[in-house]
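Progress against Task 2.4 (sequence-to-structure conversion) is shown through the following example record, which the project officer requested during the mid-term review.
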Amino acid sequence: MAHHHPENDSKYLGLNVNKGITRPPSINPYLRQVRKDYRKIYTAQEYAEGILKGDIAVLSQAVTLVESSKPEHQVVAQAIIEKCLPASGKSIRVGITGVPGSGKSTSIDAFGMHLIEQGHRLAVLAIDPSSERSKGSILGDKTRMEKLSVDKNAFIRPSPSAGSLGGVARKTRETIILCEAAGFDYIFVETVGVGQSETAVHSMVDFFLLIQLAGTGDELQGIKRGIMEMADGIIINKADGDNIDKAKMAARHFKNALHLYPLSESGWSPEVLTYSGYYKIGIKEVWNMVHRFIDFVKESGYFDRKRNEQSKYWMYETINERLKNDFYRNPFIESLMPKLEADVLSARKSSFVAAKEALDAYYDQDN
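Structure tokens generated for the chain above:
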């Protein structure tokens, strides 16, 4: 009598597909509708109308166009931004930076929920110039924003992967305009990674918050002077349990250090607070500080002056970036650069002579 071997039975094979239910229930019942809406192609006017109505699916799609490097997408994106511009500018923009491990994601989650509970709507954006390589490291952080990531009053967007910091920053600034037009009255811009991203974030926010940790004994070591000078407020995170005394001591160190810096352009003296993102201790105090700052700079006129300066700065940054892109994407220049590189490396030409030749060749094409 032949023995039955389960491995010969198709029902036991790994390739066997069991009969499933026809359509599994969606985790989010609105997701299917959003996906359906997402596939539609709109005109710039329709995008703008959808954004102004607060339609998140349309906003997401418009942000994707802003982030795209395809020329035809950029044409539509710029038209959408122009239409949304009059409805933008009414939010409070907060930049958030801190060393890896300082608890930025937990803090953003706690701060965000605090604002939403008070009836606000929040967009969280990120600037990560390394996202081209890491394919968006904020995606990992998004899962740590447990409450915000599922709240209908929050919009979380990973960093655009545009390669250059200038490109990433410009796209983030344009996304701020769309988010404000969609009714988000608080915008957080988080720095991810290290490098120049703090300066880029500082150039597009009203309040710049530095999150620090206590307990290392050398809190002030390794903090770039520039970041300390940019900060409007410093918070020492994880001020809970055995760490409370260390956090208070760190706060004193930072307060003393801040006295050594000249008063900022705004005339505001940065404050240093301790708090716990995990235990939600001191969150209200942090936001009272932010609001005190906003009231202070609005009263003095600095708020509007800074916003105007930022708009001017981004006009010049965009010109610089466009010129650079036009130059390097030019087919003639693309073919010329390897030869000039070889000349520089073999010391046949100096860097400056080679650069001048490249620019002369670029300009001569138009004549």
